[in-house]
């Protein structure tokens, strides 16, 4: 297996497991999308991945009855990105949560942590956790396909402020986006490897207690710029800025 796939623009299909062998079948929802929506034909180039870094580049042998047969041309193990990006996202209202995950996935996030901040308008009660997580994970999967990412970001169980603070002990840099912060993002020394966490508050903003707690856990309060961004877009903006200084450099 080679280390990285060719960037040929071929569509990506995600399956639970990529089987061994020279020919594989893509069916179910992915097969229907390939045949009924994209209307792929014989000979067209495609990618098939397990969402965990294994990706096959192949050629369509047949496409009919909501299933696609693919001739395997090459197999690749794509290494995990370095540094690793973690987005701690306060629960936004409505569809802004899946939007935040969608944008963050396209811009390289590796793990998303739903955060039950004090001022969240949305509350995932016991009977709503599974539904909320399903929407966020579906958004991560769909955005991975759009971005041709062979690794689908993990969306964890929701965390409290205390749990997030405990998690920060294992990261190399933690940034809290705060419009009142004195330190601009551009002045932060960003590591080239390791784990970087970005914490985004809710529509109502961070409480003083949350800022103090995160600071005590080692996080830095920073501002991206003069504008106050929506909670659904702030994380993506920060990830793009981080990528420009690390992965895209």
TrEMBL record:
InterPro entries: Alpha/beta_knot_MTases (IPR029028), PUA-like_sf (IPR015947), RsmE (IPR006700), RsmE_MTase_dom (IPR046886), RsmE_PUA-like (IPR046887), tRNA_m1G_MTases_N (IPR029026). Keywords: Cytoplasm, Methyltransferase, rRNA processing, S-adenosyl-L-methionine, Transferase. GO terms for biological process: rRNA base methylation. GO terms for molecular function: rRNA (uridine-N3-)-methyltransferase activity. Residues 26-72 form the Ribosomal RNA small subunit methyltransferase E PUA-like domain. It catalyses: uridine(1498) in 16S rRNA + S-adenosyl-L-methionine = N(3)-methyluridine(1498) in 16S rRNA + S-adenosyl-L-homocysteine + H(+). It is found in: Cytoplasm. It is an enzyme of class 2 (transferase). Pfam families: Methyltrans_RNA (PF04452), PUA_4 (PF20260). Its EC number is 2.1.1.193. It comes from the Bacteria. One of its GO terms (cellular component) is cytoplasm. Residues 84-242 form the Ribosomal RNA small subunit methyltransferase E methyltransferase domain. CDD domains: RsmE-like (cd18084). Its main location: cytoplasm. SUPFAM superfamilies: alpha/beta knot (SSF75217), PUA domain-like (SSF88697). Specifically methylates the N3 position of the uracil ring of uridine 1498 (m3U1498) in 16S rRNA. Acts on the fully assembled 30S ribosomal subunit. Belongs to the RNA methyltransferase RsmE family. This is Ribosomal RNA small subunit methyltransferase E. It comes from Modestobacter versicolor.
